[in-house]
Structure formats: structure tokens, C-alpha cells
Design a protein that fits this description.
0% strand; disordered N terminus; 430 residues; mainly alpha; globular
Length: 430
């Protein structure tokens, strides 16, 4: 357990703790945040937490399985439009995913921690205020970022030397950024309240159904190769609106009262906490997406590298990334649970919880890596005969995705306590 340093208690004054994380007293009373419960209660509390984690993991598993229905959309793009259209869309989506980290500014992860801490001390009015602040900031920043990037592509493409069809695809997909921000932040708020089932309805059901129907309609109307990008924008917007509506229902019971907190103070604390998270998210996403983006850069510049090759490789990544979703089974419930534990000083329970989740993830990841490595070519045939050649790459990418899913659990621990360490680690890795 030596590597679990972020769980060790800090002998800080209450004022220093609140200055660092943005906590405040409730009704003027002081809260002893650094007093842990008796050690003799630890086994029972670990078991109780295990039940909570299993319940949350079960709901997250349903959400992840439901979100896999978006694979139908990828399958239809590959079957109806071919690997070239899939390659263009995949590169545009990967680039948008990187840029969206600038727009969201780490608020999706930060708001989960802040909401969980407010709920742990019973300050529901502050939770609602934080929810509104995060949504407004995230959506506004995403719109501004998307507009700036689109204008840059239009006016400076001659210097960037990006293929015209790639510019068109990227400009379209960038319009999905506000919807992505709305979904991520609203879902993070629900997770901070330990409500996991909202993701089932927004990402698991709404997004794949709306995206697939929008794609089929766009093809029928005549958008042709632009159909995947149009569908992605519509699906992201629908998912974001549903996530917002569901998160809003969690605050209906909170009585309306005059705000006793300074909005500027809350924004300052939230942004200061989220900024390093945003940067290391950006770096991590850049690292994970860099292979596809670099491959697309060499289209027409290196022997054998075509848009069709990019399409095949994107299918490989999409298949292997299913292993990353194992992390999404546990991480959404683990983040608010560990945030609540650490704010109350339950560091020993948090350490035991981390060890238990790490074991569960290994039991799931190792068999999945073996299957994808041994039967990769057969699995990829679902996209069409042209994708069979990607089987030799799938084992390597699957191992990388599984490793990423496992170690990301540790990043959650560090993010809750010391997000600057994640930024340092990601910078060195990049």
C-alpha cells in the first residue's frame, strides 16, 4: 500500500483544507474533516462500501453495455459508406475529442468531487449552485472553442496542409462540442450525487438510437459521406439535453433560498481545481488519440497508408476501446465514494476500497485481452471483408487499452486529492 500516498491524512487546519478544496461550514458550524472513524469499524465499513460499489458498478455496466449499441452506428458507416468514410469520421471525432477537453476545462471530473463533498456534509444548496456554474461555464467555453477552431481551419488551412475532405469533416464534428460538454458535466453531477442510472438513459439509450436514426436519415436525404458527422452532432446534442434534464431532477427537492455563497468565490475554487485536471485530460487524450491522427497525416505521404487503412485501424481502436469501458464500470461510482471518504478522513477505508476494485478489474481485463488477441481477425469481419487485415493489430491495441483502463483507477485517487500530480505525470509521459 505504499503507493497509496494520496490517501494518507493531512494534518492541516480546517481553514487550510477549505481554502484548498473550496469547502465551507454548514450553518456556521465547524466540521472536523480530518477525524477518521475508529479503526475497529473499518472491516464493516469496507463491506458496506463494497455493497455500494457493486450497486453502482452494476448500473454503470448496464450503461456501458447500452452505449455499445453505438457500435451499430459504426457498423452501418462501414457497411454503407466503406472504410474511407469511416476513416474520415474517426479522425474528425478523435480530433474533436482532444479539443473538447479544452472546452470542458476539466469541469466534468472536478464537479463530481465538489458535489460529492457538498453532499457528504449535507450542503445541498451549494450542490445546486455548483451544478449551474459548471453547466454554464462548460457549454460557453465549448462554443467559443469550437468557433475559434473552425475559423482557424477555414482561414489558415493553406498553411496547415490538411486535406479538404478532412477539414470539412472536422468542421462539422466540432459542432458536437456543446452537446458533449452538456452530457459530460450533467452526468458528472449525477455521479457526484451517486446516481448512476442517468447515464443509461442519456449515453446508453438516447445517444446510440438518435445517432443511428440521424445517420440513416442523413444518408436518405443525400448527405452521403458527411452523414456520420451530421449524425454525431445530432446524437451528442440529444444526449446532452437528456443528461441535463435528468441531473436537474436531483435538485427539485432542494428548497429555494437566497444564495449565501459568493458565485465568484465558487467559480474561482472550481476553476482552480479543474484547470490542472483539464490539462492532464487533454494530454492523456492526445496520447491515446495520437496514433490515429498521425496515421491520417501520412495518408498519401507513406507507402500503403490510405484513408481506407485509417478506416480499418479506426475499427481496431473502436473494438479494443471496449476494454477501456471496464474502467467506466467502476470509476463513476468510485470517484464520489472516495471523495466523500477523504473529506471525512476515512483514508484507511479508501485504501482498502481501491485495492478491492483493482482486483475486480484484473479479473475482467485479462480474459478479454486473450480473446481479442486470439480471435481478432474473426471479430473484425463484422465490419466487412476489408477489415480482416486489422486482426494482427488488435492484440497490441487491446493490451494497451486494458493497461490504460487499469492504471486510470489510480488517476482517480490522485485527482480527488492532488490533481497537480496527475498533470505532472501526464506531462512527463507525453
Amino acid at each position: 500500500m505504499k503507493h497509496l500516498g494520496p490517501f494518507m491524512p493531512h494534518n492541516l487546519e480546517i481553514a487550510q483544507v477549505r481554502d484548498r478544496v473550496g469547502e465551507k461550514p454548514v450553518n456556521g458550524s465547524e466540521i472536523a474533516l480530518d477525524v477518521a472513524p475508529p479503526v475497529s469499524d473499518a472491516p464493516a465499513r469496507v463491506d458496506q462500501t463494497g455493497v455500494e460499489l457493486k450497486r453502482g458498478a452494476f448500473l454503470n455496466t448496464i450503461a456501458s453495455l447500452a452505449s455499445n449499441f453505438r457500435g451499430i452506428f459504426t457498423f452501418l458507416v462501414a457497411r454503407l459508406l466503406g472504410p474511407v468514410a469511416l476513416g474520415l469520421y474517426s479522425v474528425a471525432w478523435a480530433t474533436t475529442d482532444i479539443i473538447s477537453k479544452i472546452g470542458v476545462l476539466g469541469l466534468d471530473n472536478a464537479i463530481t468531487t465538489f458535489i460529492a463533498r457538498s453532499e457528504a456534509i449535507g450542503d445541498q444548496a451549494r450542490s445546486r449552485t455548483l451544478f449551474r456554474i459548471a453547466v454554464v461555464l462548460g457549454v460557453a467555453q465549448s462554443i467559443i472553442t469550437a468557433v475559434i477552431v473552425i475559423l482557424t481551419l477555414r482561414f489558415f488551412n493553406s498553411r496547415l496542409h490538411v486535406k479538404p475532405q478532412m477539414v470539412s469533416a472536422l468542421a462539422l464534428v466540432l459542432c458536437a462540442m456543446p452537446g458533449l460538454a452538456l452530457y459530460r458535466i450533467s452526468t458528472a453531477v449525477s455521479r457526484g450525487m451517486k446516481v448512476m442510472q442517468h447515464d443509461i438513459y442519456s449515453r446508453g439509450i438516447t445517444e446510440p438510437i438518435v445517432t443511428t436514426l440521424a445517420f440513416l436519415l442523413a444518408v436518405a436525404i443525400g448527405f452521403k459521406n458527411s452523414s456520420p458527422e451530421v449524425a454525431a452532432v445530432v446524437g451528442s446534442a440529444a444526449s446532452g439535453l437528456v443528461a441535463l434534464a435528468l441531473a436537474s431532477t436531483l435538485f427539485r427537492h432542494v428548497p429555494v433560498q437566497a444564495d449565501v455563497v459568493s458565485l465568484f468565490r465558487e467559480v474561482r475554487f472550481l476553476v482552480a481545481y479543474a484547470a490542472p485536471i483539464s490539462i492532464y485530460q487533454l494530454i492523456n487524450t492526445l496520447i491515446s488519440r495520437l496514433d490515429l491522427i498521425l496515421l491520417s497525416y501520412f495518408v498519401g505521404r507513406a507507402p500503403g497508408v490510405t484513408l481506407a487503412t485509417v478506416g480499418v485501424y479506426s475499427a481496431v481502436i473502436g473494438t479494443a476501446n471496449g476494454l477501456r469501458r471496464v474502467n467506466q464500470t467502476f470509476n463513476p461510482i468510485f470517484a464520489p465514494v472516495v471523495a466523500g471518504m477523504t473529506v471525512k478522513g476515512d483514508h484507511q477505508i479508501a485504501a482498502a476500497t481501491y485495492a478491492r476494485l483493482a482486483q475486480w478489474m484484473l479479473w475482467i481485463l485479462l480474459p478479454c485481452v486473450a480473446v481479442l488477441s486470439l480471435a481478432g481477425s474473426t471479430i473484425l469481419l463484422i465490419y466487412g471483408p476489408a477489415f480482416w487485415q486489422g486482426g494482427q493489430w488488435l492484440g497490441i491495441v487491446a493490451l494497451a487499452s486494458a493497461t490504460n483502463a487499469f492504471v486510470s483507477l489510480g488517476e482517480t485517487v490522485i485527482m480527488v486529492q492532488r490533481p497537480h500530480l496527475n498533470l505532472l505525470h501526464s506531462t512527463i509521459t507525453c
